[in-house]
Amino acid sequence: MDLIVRNAKVNGKLTDIGVKDGKIVKIGKIDEKGEVEIDANGRLASPPFVDPHVHLDAVLTVGDPRYNMSGTLWEGIEIWSERKKKLSKEDVKERAKEAIRWAVAQGILAIRTHVDVCDPSLVALEAMLEVKEEVKDLVDLQIVAFPQEGIVSFPNGENLMRRALEMGADVVGGIPHYEFSREDGIKSIDIILSLAKEFDRDIDVHIDETDDDQSRFLEYLASKTIKEGYQGRVTASHTTAMHSYNNAYAYKLFGVLKKAKMNIIANPLDNIALQGRFDNYPIRRGMTRVKELLKSGINVGFGHDSVMDPWYPLGRYNMLQVAFVGLNLGHMTGYEEIKMAFDAVTKNSAKLMRLDWYGLEEGKDASFVILNAKSEIDAIRLMSEALYVIKNGKVVAKTKPAEYEVNGKKVRMEVKGVYE
Ligand code: FE2
User: Is residue 60 part of a domain?
Assistant: First the structure.
């Protein structure tokens, strides 16, 4: 075998993982010797992290040309429109590739990025299509044609979307709640579905990203998905308005979402920072109903959304940080609920991105991580380092964990018998 990982924790048990020709060929006791051997020392082997929602064309621009002093969405939009004028292919590529290195170092092996196509030059898209090719041995990148300023409201918006898809964007995006009127928003959803069908692409729409409880584009997207037979291929990102819907309406909506096999993405970092800004105390939590959706059987993933950009100034592209914030924000501290948050940054997002290679199972691609923890819960609690990141059977990243010492004695922040 090309690679054998010994003593890894898989589904609660210690085992070996054997890899040949980039595939996982055995999970179980392995007697033969491998070309490369790694001792996981009882640490958790997990399918890799997946970030299903980020804006790589904007990452790492924080402070340029100026910092967001109010921290609001609107000042962020103003700053981005100034920064956008300076975009060049090299600038986008350099920042995106740097962020991707941060991601891979921390165990992310699949990313879906939105790229702003409300720009007649489509320079960011051109840059990201090149990046996708250049990083393909590190990360599986999907590109969403994202009309930041609208499809109907932005001059020539529909044509720009069409050109982006012709150039090779993988997914059709949208932003119906941001269009000038409700009618324009509905029209934009019709265009999204018709483009997706014409080009045979999946859909991932920024939708109802507002605290306005009257923003109800999601129900139309779901209904249209069912009518067009597009079930399972559509993702609704943000849906923060759902936080403010009355329960009777939310209950009815969930039924339609299930019929549409709709995927939902919450972005805990940006959502908590940007929503609730018009509220007086008590201030609403800015996240969609993650726990309720999951418990109704609707697939929910967590995205990072921003990494040091005009909208969210922090982040180091770590999905465990996202899971940590998301579960706290979503009142998901129940024992099983913490594990659900881990799923939201791993397999749920792989499902919505329809990654057929994904999973820590025999026959799947040997793309997985060894985390510096014994369980998923402890990985989140400790925001554990990814000790080894393995992509198609090759170790692409390694991390030496921090060591703590007090009065010369090693300190491990683990409790024996708990979360093992
Ligand atoms: Fe976004």
Answer: yes
